Amino acid sequence: MNWDSVAAMAEMLGAIAVVVSLIYLGRQVRQNTTAVRTGNANTVQNNFQKLAKLFYTDPEMTAIVLRAMDSDKDLTPVQRLGAYAYFFDFLKTAELAHYHLRKGELDEELWIASMAFYKAYFTTAGFQAYWKERKASFVPAFQEVVDQWMTEEPPIKRPHEMSKAGIN
């Protein structure tokens, strides 16, 4: 065997090693993408659960938030501030989910299901009034989405409608 044959074999082995490395790298990237999407889905779900927890742990605050959704003018400044803090948290949770969706880091199916929930809240009179006052606190891409939602009828009952008519 001469040096040209050895060099050719080394070159061929090097090319095979590069191909194997690229295949391995591709698998690692896919696994990482799956892990990121799963982590983001868990974060979105956990954020929702934290928001929902208010409704079953604090009946007084729940009543205030429901009144605020109805744009109750009789809320005290402290009550209004508490409701507005909830609205802010809720919107920021949705904004984070939307950010992950735009970056391809959140499953579209989860986003579509979440939109039904978001729309039920965002189309209440109180949320709309809050949005007009505080819209600038959110990124422009999310502002566009919420503005669109506010023109649409939600596919599920609004929270204050459920509390007045019973949950069906």
Overall geometry comes to: rod-shaped
Helical fraction equals: over 70%
- State the secondary-structure class: mainly alpha
Strand proportion, as a percent range, falls in under 5%
The radius of gyration is 25 Å
**Roughly what is the average pLDDT, rounded to an integer?**
83
User: How many E-type strands?
Assistant: 0
Q: How many alpha or pi helices?
A: 7
One letter per element, helices H and strands E, the order comes to HHHHHHH
**pLDDT < 50 runs, ≥5 residues:** none
Number of domains: 1
For the largest beta-sheet, the strand count, sense and barrel status come to: none
* Gap from first CA to last CA: 83 Å
Describe the structure.
By secondary structure, this protein is an all-alpha fold. It has one domain. Helix content is 80%, strand content 0%. The chain has seven helices and no strands. The protein has helices at residues 3-57, 59-69, 77-102, 108-122, 125-134, 140-149, 159-165. Helix 2 packs across helix 3. It starts with a helix and ends with a helix. The relative contact order is 0.10.
Question: What order do the helices and strands come in, and which of them pair?
Answer:
Elements: H1 3-57, H2 59-69, H3 77-102, H4 108-122, H5 125-134, H6 140-149, H7 159-165
Helix pairs in contact: 1-3, 2-3
